[in-house]
Design goal:
By secondary structure, this protein is α/β, with parallel strands linked by helices. It has a single domain, classed as Rossmann fold (3-Layer(aba) Sandwich), CATH 3.40.50.150. Helices cover about 30% and strands about 30% of the residues. Strands 3-2-1-4-5-9-8 form a 7-stranded mixed beta sheet. A two-stranded antiparallel sheet has the order 6-7.
Length: about 210
């Protein structure tokens, strides 16, 4: 799916559905926070949430005292939902962009992505994602990716997805990233369905 098609799809999702009417809604992003905590972040840790949209992860990061949080999403409507919820927040930078074409202007200690990477079914898009990740993460930095597990859904939001285990996610990142944690998570959608996720944390070579 090309950049403009992706953007149009997600703008439509977030302008026609409320925050808690999408399958990926989480009141408490516990799996992500548990892995981020392994990196022992400080108030000055720089973190980017890829595909963060209306996610409540940013609320938790700000509440924990992080001062340098970036939330990136294709959808302006999704980011507007999070902005409205948080109010004026000087510790958060909001970026409307497609990660496969984004040119980050800084580097980050932690790269977080829950449920964005698995939508990249085209190999060239995945290569562009990984190239951006490598450009944006600091040596010694951490990468947290949550994707649908091998036995997870085959489609989401009307789109085909790729499914991963720890080995296949590691293979996508390639050399220079060491797997330091892998765990499965059963996510309950707002209507009670169970979606199986694979969460992995990697550390980039120093």
């Amino acid at each position: 799916m090309k950049d403009m098609s992706r953007r149009a799809h997600w703008e439509n999702v977030y302008t026609t559905k409320s925050e808690n009417e999408v399958s990926w809604f989480q009141e408490n992003p516990a799996p992500s926070l548990e892995l981020i905590d392994l990196a022992q972040p400080t108030p000055e840790t720089t973190i980017v949430d890829i595909g963060g949209g209306a996610s409540r992860l940013v609320d938790s990061l700000v509440a924990r005292g992080l001062h340098q949080v970036t939330v990136l999403d294709l959808s302006e409507a999704a980011l507007a939902t999070a902005k409205a919820r948080l109010g004026d927040q000087p510790n958060v930078q909001w970026v409307t962009a497609d990660v496969t074409t984004w040119k980050p202007t800084q580097t980050y200690d932690i790269w977080h992505d829950r449920a964005a990477f698995h939508f990249l079914t085209d190999g060239s898009d995945r290569a562009a994602y990984v190239a951006c990740l490598k450009h944006a993460t600091k040596p010694g930095g951490h990468v947290v990716i949550g994707s649908f597990a091998i036995d997870g859904p085959e489609r989401c939001s009307g789109l085909a997805v790729n499914r991963y285990d720890a080995a296949s996610l590691a293979a996508e990142l390639g050399k220079g990233f060491r797997l330091i944690d892998a765990r499965r998570h059963e996510h309950a959608t707002p209507w009670g369905a169970i979606q199986r996720f694979q969460f992995c944390m990697f550390q980039r070579s120093a």
